[in-house]
Design goal:
The protein is an alpha/beta fold. 53% of the residues lie in helices and 8% in strands. The chain has a four-stranded antiparallel β-sheet, with helices on one face. Strand 5, helix 5 and strand 6 form a beta-alpha-beta unit. The mean pLDDT is 96. The chain binds arginine.
């Protein structure tokens, strides 16, 4: 079954065609002036241009034929050619009851795809930082949205586990513990089962090694050698690499878990690396590779480029593979193993050129067919109050964990005093994730925003806690009805203008989901959740739902409450936000 609004859009499209106007698509929008109608159709303006007619003329024709059908309570023309539609109560009530029986009716897209998403990008042996937050939040929510709409999805962490940072960490470990067998080329015995370092050690070692390498060329050279040695699968360094991986991955996983971020596969650059030889062999055989001062490159510029797109450096002159080649080999692997219709990459906007080069290279060489949509989905940065990327007090990089803890401290202050002990801890965690996620997903994806833990954890306003608090309250209303054995099965009547507004809002879910899906940005869903929750809360304050004496009214109100509740749960889940029992 089609969604209600889709049916109406189709109906209007047919009417326009009967009148001789060809239209690709008719879109109905919730009216910005409810006193004029429930929904608005603004497409006549475009048609008028196309047919060189006065928009009012077309609009009048359309309104006249529709009026004959007596389909709506009211259909009217306003301004230069806007058409306002007011649905009949019966139409609205019927659709609410369909929705009550099948909330999923709004969750689908016309053309489902298989989508592979890449939104992890955490770097092994380095702390997850604020920069990884948006990629994880937006990526996870887009995956959940795409899945909810009926697409097949799969996500990979794509850990940064094969580059210089690991070489630097190994160099520092070697300086501290030169006697460890991992560094002894003549060692043939078994390597220790225990890791020589903990995650806390790694958190201290990497920043230090990175500073040392900047100040001391010899140290840097040593790190380069170690990097190239482990990338050639040196036996001892591989054993050490495995320890570092195990320790660090466990910690990365812990933080992604805390954020409700999940991946179907936990691969990394090291896994792509395995496919580099066969990828290069193919590229050389097909004649795509050029030599440039000892390096292997693929040129990807095009005659009508309006900015410089440098060639892709596949293999550096020292024989090591580049970040570009891991992504090219990664696509080689993904196409061979999964052959998805689309691949989506989420990193901040600074990696734009990187992905432009990679995409051009794989399309040009046929590693990825043109029919597969490769998409780079960049996002703006999360800033501090000074408008610059969020930092610690002393100007350092803020770890993601510290940021989450900051939000948690604020949430703790606002939770009910009678929630104590373990439960308090758990609730504070859940709410703090709602704080961070909602704030992160609310602005349009490419917009920067300022992180303000106090404002974002407020129980009032456009915040995660406001949505949670309100949703929990609907749940307890429904629970009370159940405890008091009050039955409610359907909407029977519309007895209150606010009730009507909620119903109008509920009709619009599919549009909101599709807009978010198309823009690859969750802001529409976030705004919608706030709006519908807000209207519902007004309704809740205006009426005494449980003690309403008229049974039909009470039943209708409870049914509407249940639909709002179910729908809020579904949308919060798409955003990756959990709902606590109480807060
Ligand atoms: N590890 C990278 C970073 O921290 C992000 C990886 C993004 N994904 C990719 N396939 N290149 O910048």
């Amino acid at each position: 079954m089609e969604t209600f609004i889709k049916e109406e859009e189709k109906y209007i499209k047919n009417k326009l065609e009967e009148l001789g106007y060809k239209v690709k698509e008719v879109t109905l929008n919730v009216s910005s002036r409810p006193e004029l109608g429930d929904y608005q159709y603004n497409g006549v303006m475009g048609l008028a241009k196309e047919y060189h007619k006065n928009p009012r003329e077309i609009a009048e024709e359309l309104v006249k034929t529709i009026k004959k059908d007596d389909r709506y309570k009211n259909i009217d023309l306003a301004g230069p050619g806007f058409i306002n539609i007011t649905f009949s109560d019966k139409q609205l009530i019927d659709f609410m009851n369909v929705l009550n029986n099948n909330i999923d009716i709004n969750y689908k897209t016309d053309n489902p795809k298989s989508i592979f998403l890449d939104y992890g990008g955490a770097n092994v042996a380095k702390a997850l930082h604020v920069g990884h937050l948006r990629s994880a939040n937006i990526g996870e929510a887009l995956k959940r949205l795409a899945t909810a709409l009926g697409n097949k999805t799969m996500a990979d962490t794509h850990l940064g586990d094969w580059g210089r940072p690991i070489g630097l960490v190994m160099t520092e470990i070697k300086h501290r513990f030169p006697e460890l067998p991992y560094f002894d080329e003549n060692y043939e015995g078994e390597y220790p089962k225990e890791s020589p370092v903990t995650n806390d050690d790694l958190m201290e070692i990497y920043p230090l090694a990175s500073i040392k390498a900047k100040e001391d060329e010899a140290y840097m050279e040593e790190a380069r050698e170690i990097t190239s040695k482990f990338q050639k699968y040196d036996r001892g360094l591989t054993a050490l690499w495995n320890h570092i991986m195990t320790v660090s991955k466990a910690d990365i996983k812990r933080i992604y878990d805390r954020l409700n971020v999940t991946f179907e596969t936990w691969e990394g650059e090291s896994d792509c690396y395995k496919y580099i030889p066969e990828t290069i062999e193919y590229l050389e055989k097909e004649g795509f590779v050029e030599d440039s001062q000892g390096a292997k490159i693929i040129s990807v510029s095009e005659p009508d480029d309006d900015h410089e797109v440098p060639p892709v450096l596949l293999i550096k002159s020292n024989g090591s593979a580049s970040y570009e080649s891991t992504d090219i080999a990664g696509l080689w692997e993904r196409m061979h193993l999964f052959n998805p219709d689309e691949v989506w990459y989420l990193t901040d906007a600074r990696q734009n050129l990187h992905f432009e080069q990679v995409f051009r290279a794989v399309y040009k060489t046929g590693i990825v067919p043109k029919s597969t949509n490769l998409e780079f989905i960049p996002f703006g940065t999360m800033n501090g109050k000074d408008g610059k990327p969020f930092k610690t007090r002393d100007g350092g990089v803020m770890s993601l964990e510290n940021l989450l803890d900051m939000a948690k401290v604020e949430c703790e202050k606002k939770i009910l005093p009678n929630i104590t002990g373990e439960e308090r801890e758990k609730v504070a965690n859940i709410v703090s994730i709602a704080v961070v996620k909602y704030a992160d997903l609310l602005p349009y994806r490419l917009t920067d925003y300022v992180f303000d833990p106090v404002k974002f954890s407020d129980l009032q306003g456009k915040t995660g806690p406001y949505l949670l608090y309100s949703t929990i309250r609907i749940k307890s209303l429904l629970k009370k009805a159940q405890d008091e054995k009050i039955e409610y099965n359907e909407v029977k009547m519309i007895s209150d203008p606010t009730q009507r507004n909620i119903m109008i809002g509920l009709l619009n879910i599919n549009n909101v989901l599709i807009n978010s899906y198309k823009s690859r940005s969750l802001n529409d869903i976030c705004e919608y959740l706030y709006k519908i929750t807000n209207i519902y809360n007004n309704f809740y304050y205006q009426n005494r739902i449980l003690t309403e004496e008229d049974q039909n009214t009470r039943e209708s109100w409870l049914t509407i409450s249940k639909i709002v509740y179910d729908n809020n749960c579904k949308l919060l889940n798409i955003l990756g936000i959990e709902i606590p029992e109480r807060m």
